[in-house]
Amino acid sequence: MYLENVDKQAFLDSDWQKRPRLFKRGLANVDLIEPEILAGLAMEDGVDARIIEHRAQAWSVTHGPFEEYESLGEENWTLLVQAVNEWMPDVHSLLQAFRFLPEWRIDDVMVSFSVEGGGVGPHVDEYDVFIVQGAGRRHWRVGARQSTTPTYPCEDLKQIKESFDAVIDEVLEPGDVLYIPAGCPHDGIALEPCLNYSVGFRAPNQAEWLAKLADMALQTEQLKQRYTDPNLSSDNPSHIVTEAQLGQVKQLLKSAVESSDFDELILRAQSMSKRPLPEPELPMVAEQVPALLTMDNATVVRTPGSRLLKHFDKPHYFANGEMFVVTAEAEALAKQLAELTDETAITELAPVCSDACGQALIAWLVNQGVIELLID
């Protein structure tokens, strides 16, 4: 699945994180899930789902799992289900259209089903999002980035107080793709029963980055340099923290950020999946791989929600918070696995998996839950 009639580099140069854009008929096939299947998924334990209703000028939010929908009627409600790409392969295929953007930034695909009048109210997101129109039609108004004041009409629903001037005011039809940068107010109202696919891009703030990297450093036992005092004066009252002491702490942290260890920690954090990845019942060992590569009834597929990233100038690959060093002989295999989007016959990997490192790489990725081995 690919974006059609879109100059991707021009979009990145002129629009990405700058202004909203609408791509009419940007995708050809968006018949990815039936409303009944989505509704059934929202009945399952472990699935993050909400129903937002707007009736008699009042908003309400109900969290799943749900038992029935008949009592909701045919107007003014929306079902939203997070991370549907991790449950439904057809929905996961939608991400192929956005692989011109950094893989680690992709969060998940939220799918919403709305009846006539359904919506979540005017709001802003703290992340970039592409909204793909599936079945049905929805009227969208999107404004330029502006300062807004949050308001909470009910628990678990954040909207904005201010009205906004729309720079996009359009009815989306199947295949239309709407890009909304972080901080741009928007509001969408279903004109009829419809499906929307929202591809969100995570953007951790400074505190979130520091928390993730600190946890990662503790797990990997890195960044262990300790604080030492600057020159002290016996005349300084003990309760006063001096400028020199503050500077010493900042320098300690600055030296951590500038170290090569910190680069590794960032990549480890970037490679972490949003949710735990499935583990094989029995760990795979590299010695099993040569026999698997000859099996005509075996395929490999990237696990939805997994990430496989490479350092820009080192042979270091990262997945699920772990690092694997790839030899020159295994680089072609690693690249092929990193670019894997569809289910692939494992025999296709054989020409680039003839050495021990490549075989160990496949076993490592299976054990990490990043790729799955399927045998008919």
How would you describe the overall organization of this protein?
The chain is globular, with a radius of gyration of 24 Å. The longest helix has 15 residues, at 206-220. It has helices spanning 8-14, 35-41, 89-92, 206-220, 243-257, 260-270, 289-292, 331-338, 356-368, and strands at 21-23, 49-55, 58-63, 77-81, 106-114, 128-133, 138-143, 150-154, 157-160, 166-172, 177-180, 186-190, 194-201, 298-302, 308-310, 316-319, 322-325, 344-345, 371-375. By secondary structure, the chain is α+β, with helices and mostly antiparallel strands. The mean pLDDT is 94. The protein has an eight-stranded antiparallel beta sheet with strand order 1-11-6-13-5-4-2-3, with helices on one face. InterPro entries: JmjC_dom, NO66-like, ROXA-like_wH. Residues 90-218 form the JmjC domain.
